[in-house]
UniProtKB/TrEMBL annotation:
Residues 4-254 form the ABC transporter domain. GO terms for biological process: peptide transport. Residues 255-289 are annotated as: Disordered. The lineage of its organism: Bacteria, Bacillati, Actinomycetota, Actinomycetes, Propionibacteriales. This is ABC transporter ATP-binding protein. InterPro entries: AAA+_ATPase (IPR003593), ABC_transporter-like_ATP-bd (IPR003439), Oligopep_ABC_C (IPR013563), P-loop_NTPase (IPR027417). Keywords: ATP-binding, Nucleotide-binding, Transport.
Length: 289
């Protein structure tokens, strides 16, 4: 059983036009994710509320300006080489736009072969191919249909499922998914979420699911954290938070949508904020593969 703990995590950025020259993107974020039993925890908030900052901090892409992120009790920014390799294997990202992660000049197979090599899954080419095919099947992609293709030859939903196939191969303890379905249409969105739910059930993976879409939160169930202007204002089971919100901001979010209706979820999608969720151009955009 593994635990990721955030303790008082703060992320400030230099910013012009603010009184002290700083912008505080994240304030005192304190929460834990555990792998046993596996969880689905949604992090919901509007654009600019600090969601991607949390993802980047947990993934070790950005060191917070204060506070600690611990994996099994150890500061993730002070791990030994071997511990860091173990963390990188067990905490895997999925981002909003997989297109930016694929190199347009290489076939999509490369992303999967790189995972085989980087994480030493096997040295045997036939076994590697068998693993790749098994993982593509696990995310309902036909290997014959996608292998050998270039990123632009696949749909957004297929590219995103290749990233899920990669995760299926690696079997991490934690998946940090930052708005992974924002650019997908309703039916493909549902397929994607169902795969994450399968991963929890079949492989014990815990997902931190970042979204600005409340209907997605309802669909996933599990726990939810609500973030507003860099502060996590509420955390609890989706059912209780949505039915009895204790924070005014959560109430405000909920007031803007009708009560959940399982049959209507995918036709009447409600956005917390329809301006989209753009990471500023200044933010580091680190390719993961
Ligand atoms: N590298 C950066 N430099 C300066 N400001 C940033 C940087 N990254 C994020 N921010 C700012 O921090 C705040 C939170 O951003 P972000 O975590 O991307 O929010 P979200 O993912 O919820 O939309 C925003 O005001 C954003 O403009
Ligand atoms: Mg974001």
């Amino acid at each position: 059983m593994s635990v990721i703990e955030l303790e008082g995590v703060e992320q400030r950025f230099h910013a012009r036009g603010t009184p002290d020259g700083y912008l505080t993107a994240l304030k005192d974020a304190t929460f834990t994710l555990h792998s046993d039993p596996p969880q689905i925890v949604s992090l919901v908030g509007q654009s600019g509320s600090g969601k991607s900052t949390i993802a980047r901090n947990i993934l070790g892409l950005q060191k917070p300006t204060a506070g600690l992120i611990k994996y099994d009790g150890k500061d993730i920014f002070k791990l030994s080489r071997a511990e860091n390799d173990n963390y990188r294997r067990n905490v895997q990202p999925v981002f909003q736009d997989p297109y930016s992660i694929f190199n347009p000049f290489y076939r999509v197979d490369r992303v999967l072969w790189k995972a085989v090599k980087k994480f030493n899954l096997t040295r045997d080419r036939a076994k590697g191919l068998a693993m790749i095919e098994e993982s593509l099947n696990a995310v309902s992609l036909d290997p014959a249909n996608v292998l050998g293709r270039y990123p632009h030859q696949l749909s957004g939903g297929q590219r995103q499922r290749i990233m899920l196939a990669r995760i299926h191969m690696l079997r991490p303890e934690f998946v940090i998914a930052d708005e992974p379905v924002s650019m997908l249409d309703a039916q493909i969105r549902k397929t994607f979420l169902d795969i994450l739910l399968d991963f929890r059930r079949d492989h014990g993976m815990t997902t931190l699911f970042i979204t600005h879409d409340l209907s997605t939160v309802y669909y996933l169930g599990g726990d939810v954290m609500v973030i507003n202007k860099g502060s996590i204002v509420e955390r609890g089971a989706v059912t209780s938070v949505m039915h009895e919100p204790s924070h005014p901001y959560t109430r405000l979010l909920l007031d803007s949508i009708p009560p959940p209706d399982p049959d209507q979820r995918w036709t009447n999608r409600i956005e917390v904020d329809d301006s989209g969720d753009q990471t500023p151009a200044t933010a580091p955009q680190e390719p993961v593969v």
